[in-house]
């Protein structure tokens, strides 16, 4: 039981690099356009695979060239694609606008991602039951399917670590999903939404307050990623928040996909360094995620294991 399975979204990412965002009705010149592979599920899967994990992706693509290219990309990196379903709709796409300071603004069109059904995932039931150590979920595919699989795993494979990335955030998300997850991970803006914007996160102290609010909703472990500030986390058993700091990057080039790099890396360390504390696993995942903001793109920016310091894997 050592496989990491990502159940979620895959898409074609269209990057537009520009000095600033246009105002309504305004046309501006961009600096660069690139294509990359994306979708939060695919990103997390590739991030883990590039570190050397044994990964499987479960999701949907359309019967178009975007879908064919996505499957080819998975196979190029060694991801098991046997449980990707082809649907008679368009493959998901994302428009990602990146400004000079590295910030990103994203519009996604779910396409085939919105068609992921229970029966699509049930095809991999034996794999999930007998061979899987970590499953990664996100909210870019139907929440009913996510809750269904979480329920099944909770009874059929209790040893499997279920990581739920509550992104994009929903104001009326399935409350049961938060309780079924072993780890619930969000960024600061998402965390604010899940706690009804009671508290705005603008410091470590306020992040810790929001962390406590999420634990009160029934989460077992909560991680809030804070960009350049690292992450904070706590659990129902150890409610005292812990702050994981990261090296500061002075001039980030592109922050898109860094959160997915963090989650894929965290899944890798949970499987391959089980004797480390959760603090140390998060710290190492933060280091890898921080590295990605120094490069353009999403999956293109994710490092291979041999590009990273050996001490990260000791």
From TrEMBL:
<feature type="binding site">
    <location>
        <position position="254"/>
    </location>
    <ligand>
        <name>K(+)</name>
    </ligand>
</feature>
<keyword id="KW-0539">Nucleus</keyword>
<feature type="binding site">
    <location>
        <begin position="225"/>
        <end position="230"/>
    </location>
    <ligand>
        <name>ATP</name>
    </ligand>
</feature>
<feature type="active site" description="Proton acceptor">
    <location>
        <position position="260"/>
    </location>
</feature>
<feature type="binding site">
    <location>
        <begin position="259"/>
        <end position="260"/>
    </location>
    <ligand>
        <name>ATP</name>
    </ligand>
</feature>
<feature type="binding site">
    <location>
        <begin position="39"/>
        <end position="43"/>
    </location>
    <ligand>
        <name>substrate</name>
    </ligand>
</feature>
<keyword id="KW-0808">Transferase</keyword>
<feature type="binding site">
    <location>
        <position position="292"/>
    </location>
    <ligand>
        <name>K(+)</name>
    </ligand>
</feature>
<dbReference type="InterPro" id="IPR011611">
    <property type="entry name" value="PfkB_dom"/>
</dbReference>
<feature type="domain" description="Carbohydrate kinase PfkB">
    <location>
        <begin position="1"/>
        <end position="303"/>
    </location>
</feature>
<feature type="binding site">
    <location>
        <position position="256"/>
    </location>
    <ligand>
        <name>K(+)</name>
    </ligand>
</feature>
<comment type="function">
    <text>Catalyzes the phosphorylation of ribose at O-5 in a reaction requiring ATP and magnesium. The resulting D-ribose-5-phosphate can then be used either for sythesis of nucleotides, histidine, and tryptophan, or as a component of the pentose phosphate pathway.</text>
</comment>
<keyword id="KW-0067">ATP-binding</keyword>
<feature type="binding site">
    <location>
        <position position="140"/>
    </location>
    <ligand>
        <name>substrate</name>
    </ligand>
</feature>
<keyword id="KW-0630">Potassium</keyword>
<dbReference type="InterPro" id="IPR029056">
    <property type="entry name" value="Ribokinase-like"/>
</dbReference>
<dbReference type="GO" id="GO:0019303">
    <property type="term" value="P:D-ribose catabolic process"/>
</dbReference>
<comment type="subunit">
    <text>Homodimer.</text>
</comment>
<keyword id="KW-0547">Nucleotide-binding</keyword>
<feature type="binding site">
    <location>
        <position position="260"/>
    </location>
    <ligand>
        <name>substrate</name>
    </ligand>
</feature>
<keyword id="KW-0479">Metal-binding</keyword>
<feature type="binding site">
    <location>
        <begin position="11"/>
        <end position="13"/>
    </location>
    <ligand>
        <name>substrate</name>
    </ligand>
</feature>
<feature type="binding site">
    <location>
        <position position="295"/>
    </location>
    <ligand>
        <name>K(+)</name>
    </ligand>
</feature>
<keyword id="KW-0418">Kinase</keyword>
<protein>
    <recommendedName>
        <fullName>Ribokinase</fullName>
        <ecNumber>2.7.1.15</ecNumber>
    </recommendedName>
</protein>
<dbReference type="GO" id="GO:0004747">
    <property type="term" value="F:ribokinase activity"/>
</dbReference>
<feature type="binding site">
    <location>
        <position position="297"/>
    </location>
    <ligand>
        <name>K(+)</name>
    </ligand>
</feature>
<keyword id="KW-0963">Cytoplasm</keyword>
<dbReference type="GO" id="GO:0005524">
    <property type="term" value="F:ATP binding"/>
</dbReference>
<dbReference type="InterPro" id="IPR011877">
    <property type="entry name" value="Ribokinase"/>
</dbReference>
<dbReference type="GO" id="GO:0005829">
    <property type="term" value="C:cytosol"/>
</dbReference>
<keyword id="KW-0119">Carbohydrate metabolism</keyword>
<comment type="pathway">
    <text>Carbohydrate metabolism; D-ribose degradation; D-ribose 5-phosphate from beta-D-ribopyranose: step 2/2.</text>
</comment>
<dbReference type="GO" id="GO:0005634">
    <property type="term" value="C:nucleus"/>
</dbReference>
<dbReference type="Pfam" id="PF00294">
    <property type="entry name" value="PfkB"/>
</dbReference>
<feature type="binding site">
    <location>
        <position position="187"/>
    </location>
    <ligand>
        <name>ATP</name>
    </ligand>
</feature>
<dbReference type="GO" id="GO:0046872">
    <property type="term" value="F:metal ion binding"/>
</dbReference>
<dbReference type="InterPro" id="IPR002139">
    <property type="entry name" value="Ribo/fructo_kinase"/>
</dbReference>
<keyword id="KW-0460">Magnesium</keyword>
<comment type="similarity">
    <text>Belongs to the carbohydrate kinase PfkB family. Ribokinase subfamily.</text>
</comment>
<feature type="binding site">
    <location>
        <position position="301"/>
    </location>
    <ligand>
        <name>K(+)</name>
    </ligand>
</feature>
